[in-house]
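Its record is retained below.
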Amino acid sequence: MTALELRFVLGRRAGEAVALAPGDRLEVGTGRGCAVQVREAGVAFRHAVVHVAASRPDGGPEAVAVEVEDLGRGATFVNDEAVAPRARRALARGDRLRLGDEVALVLDEPQPVDPRATLAAIAALPPFRDLADLWAVAEDAAPVGALEASAPGARGLDPLEREEAALATRDLQALVGPGWLPSDPADWLRRTADGDWVALRETPRGRLAARRWEVLALLPPGVAPGAGAARLTDAVAAVLEGARDLAPRVLEPHEGGLWSCRFEQGARRLLGRFARIDAASDGVVLALTFAPDLEGRLAEARASAEDLVAEALQAQARTRRYRPPALGPAPAAKPLPPGGRFGRLRHKPTRAKPER
């Protein structure tokens, strides 16, 4: 059976494709309940329905029959010919389906996508100019496990490099998440010729390469981001675990089905380390760059410095605290006057009374 898909060629979702399978009944419109949601001017809440069925024309091999039904708006066109309200019209391969004036789809066979062929196009989108070489750098880098298990006499990792590897492991795991990078870095941590540390790992969810501030992932079709806003954010959340509450601040389509978006609001909730996250995708390759939250890091450093200063002042105050000198022998007691303690009161002279 020949697989078919409807590919957007005009509108905000240009470059996206909707796979068709026998038995599908796909509603197209602006409503949230529509299987194909298109938020464009001129598209009704429930605009049209695409019916897919299996058929055997002329007794030949099984094929897919596709029909479009207008739901009463009368703004559905097939090859620029209007479809009558509540009527159906068959679609053949190569036909152009237009909804209103700003949305158009073409019925065609799925086109194979070569992920590596799109890396240069993604790298051309700002700010991904230096992501195109990330795969090559990661593949040429030496794995840490191989360096540690090198032959006797060969140069392995010195203590300083081991400490740097531990710091890089912590940073990369915090950046991407334990679902992509396990706790043992021997299989995925690599050292480049420049002494930098990168991650390269294949998982059931896809293949991933990462530096401290950059991530490039080849995602399988099950979690491919596509070219739309919702699927792109889902793919970002799949790579950045725990970041599902992020919403894109800027989302822009580009030629060739490429999309890029920027996360600003909520990015601070991602480990509190980044002020901005930029993403771009072509449906299979997802590229991310991270702008560190320098203000937050400086505030943390300033707070820790203030804590150190306060502790030093407290220690200095403890050393300057007044301590009384050690007690010596008790002074000698003064002798009491004659007559005891109150004898001086009994011997107090009195004034003589005048004679009358």
User: Anything to note?
Assistant: Residues 115-292 form one domain. The chain has seven helices and 20 strands. Residues 294-320 form the longest helix (27 residues). The radius of gyration is 39 Å.
